[in-house]
Design brief:
Structural class: alpha+beta
CATH class of the largest domain: Mainly Beta
Shape: rod-shaped
Number of domains: 2
CATH superfamily of the largest domain: RNA polymerase II/Efflux pump adaptor protein, barrel-sandwich hybrid domain
Largest sheet: 4 strands, antiparallel
Strand content: 15-25%
CATH topology of the largest domain: OB fold (Dihydrolipoamide Acetyltransferase, E2P)
Strand order of the largest sheet: 2-9-7-4
Radius of gyration: 36 Å
Number of helices: 3
Order of helices and strands: EEEEEHHEEEEEH
Helix content: 25-40%
Oligomer: single chain
Protein backbone atom coordinates (compact mmCIF):
# COMPACT_ATOMS: atom_id res chain seq x y z
CA UNK A 1 0.00 0.00 0.00
CA UNK A 2 1.62 3.31 -1.03
CA UNK A 3 2.42 5.72 1.79
CA UNK A 4 2.44 9.47 1.23
CA UNK A 5 5.24 11.50 2.75
CA UNK A 6 5.07 15.23 3.28
CA UNK A 7 7.82 17.50 4.44
CA UNK A 8 6.89 19.72 7.41
CA UNK A 9 6.64 23.38 6.62
CA UNK A 10 7.93 25.82 9.21
CA UNK A 11 6.45 29.26 9.29
CA UNK A 12 5.47 31.93 11.81
CA UNK A 13 1.88 31.65 13.01
CA UNK A 14 0.24 34.68 14.59
CA UNK A 15 -2.25 33.88 17.30
CA UNK A 16 -5.20 36.18 17.59
CA UNK A 17 -8.46 36.35 19.51
CA UNK A 18 -11.70 38.25 19.14
CA UNK A 19 -13.35 40.05 22.02
CA UNK A 20 -16.51 42.10 22.33
CA UNK A 21 -15.45 45.25 24.15
CA UNK A 22 -16.91 48.66 24.78
CA UNK A 23 -15.70 52.22 25.07
CA UNK A 24 -16.25 54.05 28.32
CA UNK A 25 -15.77 57.66 29.37
CA UNK A 26 -12.95 58.25 31.83
CA UNK A 27 -14.98 60.81 33.79
CA UNK A 28 -18.70 60.75 34.55
CA UNK A 29 -20.87 62.76 36.91
CA UNK A 30 -24.27 61.90 38.32
CA UNK A 31 -26.68 64.80 38.04
CA UNK A 32 -28.67 65.27 41.25
CA UNK A 33 -30.56 68.24 42.68
CA UNK A 34 -29.58 70.05 45.86
CA UNK A 35 -33.18 70.91 46.73
CA UNK A 36 -36.42 68.95 46.63
CA UNK A 37 -39.54 69.72 44.63
CA UNK A 38 -41.54 68.99 41.51
CA UNK A 39 -39.73 68.96 38.16
CA UNK A 40 -41.26 71.85 36.21
CA UNK A 41 -39.14 71.79 33.06
CA UNK A 42 -36.52 69.66 31.31
CA UNK A 43 -34.10 71.71 29.20
CA UNK A 44 -32.21 69.07 27.19
CA UNK A 45 -32.67 66.20 24.76
CA UNK A 46 -31.45 62.73 25.63
CA UNK A 47 -27.88 62.27 24.35
CA UNK A 48 -27.37 66.01 23.82
CA UNK A 49 -23.90 67.57 24.02
CA UNK A 50 -23.87 70.25 26.72
CA UNK A 51 -21.37 72.65 28.22
CA UNK A 52 -20.66 73.51 31.84
CA UNK A 53 -23.50 75.61 33.24
CA UNK A 54 -26.09 74.72 30.60
CA UNK A 55 -29.58 74.37 32.12
CA UNK A 56 -30.80 70.79 32.52
CA UNK A 57 -33.78 70.79 34.90
CA UNK A 58 -35.97 73.44 36.50
CA UNK A 59 -37.60 72.67 39.86
CA UNK A 60 -40.81 74.46 40.90
CA UNK A 61 -39.53 77.74 42.33
CA UNK A 62 -42.67 79.03 44.03
CA UNK A 63 -42.04 77.57 47.51
CA UNK A 64 -38.49 78.90 47.45
CA UNK A 65 -39.59 82.35 46.28
CA UNK A 66 -41.99 82.48 49.24
CA UNK A 67 -39.15 81.45 51.56
CA UNK A 68 -37.00 84.31 50.21
CA UNK A 69 -39.81 86.83 50.76
CA UNK A 70 -40.32 85.57 54.32
CA UNK A 71 -36.58 85.80 55.03
CA UNK A 72 -36.47 89.35 53.63
CA UNK A 73 -39.32 90.32 55.98
CA UNK A 74 -37.41 88.86 58.94
CA UNK A 75 -34.35 90.91 58.01
CA UNK A 76 -36.41 94.10 57.78
CA UNK A 77 -38.03 93.42 61.16
CA UNK A 78 -34.70 92.75 62.84
CA UNK A 79 -33.19 95.89 61.32
CA UNK A 80 -36.00 97.91 62.87
CA UNK A 81 -35.34 96.28 66.24
CA UNK A 82 -31.64 97.12 65.99
CA UNK A 83 -32.42 100.76 65.17
CA UNK A 84 -34.79 100.98 68.15
CA UNK A 85 -32.25 99.38 70.47
CA UNK A 86 -29.54 101.78 69.24
CA UNK A 87 -31.85 104.72 69.95
CA UNK A 88 -32.57 103.42 73.44
CA UNK A 89 -28.86 103.10 74.21
CA UNK A 90 -28.16 106.58 72.84
CA UNK A 91 -30.89 108.10 74.98
CA UNK A 92 -29.75 106.10 77.97
CA UNK A 93 -26.32 107.70 77.86
CA UNK A 94 -27.81 111.16 78.43
CA UNK A 95 -30.31 109.88 81.00
CA UNK A 96 -27.48 108.37 83.03
CA UNK A 97 -25.91 111.82 83.37
CA UNK A 98 -29.14 113.27 84.75
CA UNK A 99 -29.66 110.20 86.93
CA UNK A 100 -33.03 109.53 85.29
CA UNK A 101 -32.18 105.84 84.84
CA UNK A 102 -29.79 103.59 86.72
CA UNK A 103 -26.62 102.01 85.44
CA UNK A 104 -28.38 98.65 85.54
CA UNK A 105 -31.16 99.93 83.26
CA UNK A 106 -28.59 101.31 80.83
CA UNK A 107 -26.71 98.01 80.82
CA UNK A 108 -29.98 96.25 80.06
CA UNK A 109 -30.50 98.48 77.04
CA UNK A 110 -27.00 97.72 75.76
CA UNK A 111 -27.64 94.03 76.21
CA UNK A 112 -30.87 94.32 74.23
CA UNK A 113 -28.92 96.02 71.44
CA UNK A 114 -26.39 93.17 71.32
CA UNK A 115 -29.20 90.61 71.11
CA UNK A 116 -30.93 92.57 68.36
CA UNK A 117 -27.72 92.73 66.32
CA UNK A 118 -27.16 88.98 66.72
CA UNK A 119 -30.73 88.28 65.60
CA UNK A 120 -30.18 90.50 62.57
CA UNK A 121 -27.07 88.51 61.58
CA UNK A 122 -29.04 85.28 61.93
CA UNK A 123 -31.87 86.65 59.78
CA UNK A 124 -29.39 87.80 57.12
CA UNK A 125 -27.81 84.32 57.06
CA UNK A 126 -31.25 82.75 56.67
CA UNK A 127 -31.94 85.09 53.75
CA UNK A 128 -28.70 84.08 52.02
CA UNK A 129 -29.60 80.43 52.49
CA UNK A 130 -33.10 80.98 51.08
CA UNK A 131 -31.66 82.74 48.03
CA UNK A 132 -29.18 79.89 47.54
CA UNK A 133 -31.97 77.31 47.65
CA UNK A 134 -33.88 79.32 45.08
CA UNK A 135 -30.80 79.40 42.85
CA UNK A 136 -30.44 75.63 43.17
CA UNK A 137 -33.88 75.08 41.64
CA UNK A 138 -32.03 75.57 38.34
CA UNK A 139 -30.04 72.35 37.88
CA UNK A 140 -27.14 72.96 35.48
CA UNK A 141 -24.48 70.80 33.83
CA UNK A 142 -21.52 70.17 36.21
CA UNK A 143 -19.13 69.16 33.38
CA UNK A 144 -19.09 69.40 29.62
CA UNK A 145 -19.93 66.29 27.62
CA UNK A 146 -22.83 64.12 26.56
CA UNK A 147 -25.81 63.71 28.87
CA UNK A 148 -27.59 60.40 29.25
CA UNK A 149 -31.28 59.78 29.02
CA UNK A 150 -33.34 61.50 31.69
CA UNK A 151 -34.28 59.46 34.74
CA UNK A 152 -37.32 61.60 35.64
CA UNK A 153 -40.04 63.44 33.75
CA UNK A 154 -41.67 66.84 34.20
CA UNK A 155 -44.14 66.68 37.08
CA UNK A 156 -42.18 64.11 39.09
CA UNK A 157 -41.42 64.88 42.73
CA UNK A 158 -37.71 64.55 43.41
CA UNK A 159 -35.59 64.59 46.56
CA UNK A 160 -32.56 66.84 46.88
CA UNK A 161 -29.70 67.19 49.31
CA UNK A 162 -26.32 65.60 49.96
CA UNK A 163 -27.74 62.15 50.77
CA UNK A 164 -30.66 60.32 49.23
CA UNK A 165 -31.03 62.75 46.32
CA UNK A 166 -32.88 61.50 43.26
CA UNK A 167 -30.70 60.62 40.25
CA UNK A 168 -31.80 62.89 37.40
CA UNK A 169 -29.29 61.97 34.67
CA UNK A 170 -25.64 61.07 34.09
CA UNK A 171 -23.06 63.23 32.34
CA UNK A 172 -19.97 61.75 30.67
CA UNK A 173 -16.96 63.41 29.08
CA UNK A 174 -16.21 62.84 25.40
CA UNK A 175 -12.40 62.92 25.70
CA UNK A 176 -10.56 60.93 26.79
CA UNK A 177 -12.21 57.49 26.64
CA UNK A 178 -10.96 53.99 27.43
CA UNK A 179 -11.75 50.57 25.94
CA UNK A 180 -12.76 47.67 28.16
CA UNK A 181 -12.10 44.06 27.00
CA UNK A 182 -13.41 41.00 28.90
CA UNK A 183 -10.10 39.09 29.07
CA UNK A 184 -10.04 35.81 31.00
CA UNK A 185 -7.52 35.06 33.74
CA UNK A 186 -5.68 32.69 31.35
CA UNK A 187 -5.18 35.27 28.61
CA UNK A 188 -2.24 37.33 29.97
CA UNK A 189 -0.01 34.29 30.69
CA UNK A 190 -0.71 32.88 27.23
CA UNK A 191 0.20 36.17 25.57
CA UNK A 192 3.36 36.55 27.62
CA UNK A 193 4.83 33.03 27.29
CA UNK A 194 7.85 32.65 24.93
CA UNK A 195 7.60 30.90 21.56
CA UNK A 196 9.24 27.51 20.86
CA UNK A 197 12.18 29.25 19.19
CA UNK A 198 12.84 31.28 22.27
CA UNK A 199 11.78 34.55 20.69
CA UNK A 200 9.52 36.79 22.67
CA UNK A 201 5.78 36.47 22.00
Amino acid sequence: MPVGVAEPLAKRVTQWDEYSGRFEAVASVEVRARVSGFIEKIDFRDGQIVNVGDPLFTIDQRPYEIAVESAEADVARNKAQVELAELQVSRGASLIASRTITEAEHDSRKSALAVARAQLKSAEAALRNAKLNLEWTNVTAPIAGRISDRKVEAGNLISGGQTGATLLATRVTLHPTRSLLPLSDASPPRYNRPTLSGAPA
